[in-house]
Write a structure and sequence with these properties.
Helix content is 20%, strand content 43%. With 206 residues, it is of the alpha+beta class. A hairpin with a 5-residue loop joins β1 and β2. The longest helix is centred in the N-terminal third of the chain and has 30 residues.
Length: 206
């Protein structure tokens, strides 16, 4: 707080009645307490002390897409209405883990053996996750904008093409650097994508 502001507060307090002064100081203490709590929460988040809690157990999830690992041991669902993804052991049907990823996850693809890409339409992000044992963890979050939907991967798993539904374009993303290489203009409302086996053509549903 600036020094001048503190002096002004002291001057105001000196001109008030004892009861009003006490009320003002109590309000001031509550504000400071709230600011300290916010700072502590932000610091814990920045340090990665803990990830956000998942949605309530009885929340509607509406899974809209899924990805399965090569051994068919597990699958991960994109849960659109709960803003989460769920890791499920296929042999038992048990949910091993669930975590929030962003507003309205819409598509998910597997990258390699243990990583996944999830498009979150309402905050414009492409989230990269990793399955580590029975847990999910965020590896990277790439800001794209344009309401990302469908995702396609190159054969070497180093490039992703993401349909930006509201921007009438496709983002070509370098997954190693987390940077957008270029944008490809396509028709209105691009939704889902597929890459040809020879990697020379990209089909886009609009």
């Amino acid at each position: 707080m600036p020094h001048d502001t503190v002096l002004q507060l002291v001057d105001v307090c000196g001109s008030l009645s004892p009861s009003n002064r006490d009320a003002l100081m109590n309000a001031f203490r509550r504000v400071l307490s709230g600011l300290c709590c916010c700072l502590a929460a932000a610091t814990c988040s920045w340090l990665g002390a803990e990830r956000p809690a998942g949605p309530p157990a009885d929340a509607d999830r509406s899974p809209v897409d899924l990805a399965v690992n090569a051994q068919a041991d597990w699958l991960v669902t994109a849960n659109q209405t709960s803003n989460s993804v769920s890791l499920v052991r296929i042999s038992t049907g048990r949910v091993l883990d669930e975590m929030l990823v962003g507003p309205r996850p819409s598509a998910i693809v597997r990258r390699g053996e243990s990583r996944l890409l999830v498009s979150c339409s309402h905050d414009g992000t492409l989230v990269q996750l990793e399955v580590a044992g029975d847990r999910l963890q965020v590896v990277d979050k790439i800001q794209l904008g344009g309401e990302p939907l469908g995702i396609a991967l190159s054969s070497d798993q180093g490039t992703a093409w993401v349909a930006q539904h509201m921007a009438s374009r496709v983002a070509e993303v370098d997954l190693e650097s987390g940077q957008v290489r270029r944008h490809l203009a396509v028709g209105r409302w691009p939704s889902f994508l597929a890459v040809s086996p020879d990697q020379q053509r990209l089909a886009v549903a609009t």
